[in-house]
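Much of our argument rests on the idea that a fold can be written as discrete symbols. Part of our work consisted of pairing the sequence of a single chain with a tokenised description of its backbone. No coordinates are needed to read the tokens, only the vocabulary itself. The record that follows shows the chain in one-letter code together with its fold in token form.
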Amino acid sequence: MDIDVFPRHELGTVFAVLRTALRPSGPLGLAERRFLQTYARITDYPLVPANPPPIAPHEVRIEGAHQRKRLTQLAAMAALLSRPLKADSVAFVRALSRRLATHDSVVDVLDALLRGHRSRVRMLAVRRGFRVMIKEAHRSEGAAGVLRFFTAMLLKAPVNRDKLWNYKRLGLLPEGTLGREYWKHMVREGFGFPGEPAGIPDAVAYHDIAHVLAGHEATPLGEIQQGSFQGGNRREDGFAFVQFVLLQFHHGVRITPGTAAQVDHFDPELVLWAIQRGAKCNVDMTHQWDYWPLMSLTLEQARAKCGLLPKLPAASRWPTPGQTRSEGRCEPGLGLGARIAR
């Protein structure tokens, strides 16, 4: 999901759209300004003033179906920064979608969330996420892969038992290698390897391997970054992952029943940069990724092989004064890609 897709002459319109989706009227808040500032850094756009004027939907002109789709998704992300949603932000995104003649199901998600229809929000998000993961399971192992996916997700039964020791032996690799660090991550968090009871299917083991590569912890803040990274990294409908984590870890919609829903973890600086890091990698880690040749490399070597950008050196954090946010570790079984159904 590339987000730096607009030609230079359209960026003024893009930022006006994002400003309007964030807050259609009145001055922007701190987090809203940081959303724009981070995207300006990504696109190398000189953002002035701090509060760009809003724009009416009929004034928006963007060329290209891909760019129009991406602008709709970015505007939806901007609207989702506010909790609870602003009705005028949702109305703007809906009108923008009509103006650009492009529809993304996130518009339906916004409408349902605004109305308090959380069951519909969950249904839409799960359906979109499952579509992505089932497709990859089928590409990896055919119909048997789809069966293994549901067996592991719904019954917590062991699947891919023939591959279990391939993963367990990673603990014998030298300290600092990707394989050893992945093994430590799984053991430390209590996550099952492929082939273990309540373990993940081999087809989605990439999620926790990418966790280690990207340097995101298994905390709510780490998961929202990892889902965003994964969304940016995926070349086909990566927005499914971004939508999932914004709902689960910022809006408190329990998409996966394996853990409690969380709120107030959408740090725009961290989320947008995670998407950019994923998009700039030279490999789609969610699509038939052969990570085994990387396991014996050091983390630094593996990251270089994937073209992984560094994390922001000193990202500021929410909460702003007066807000609180839990930083507890996620429960075993939370990992986004593998545990969405629990």
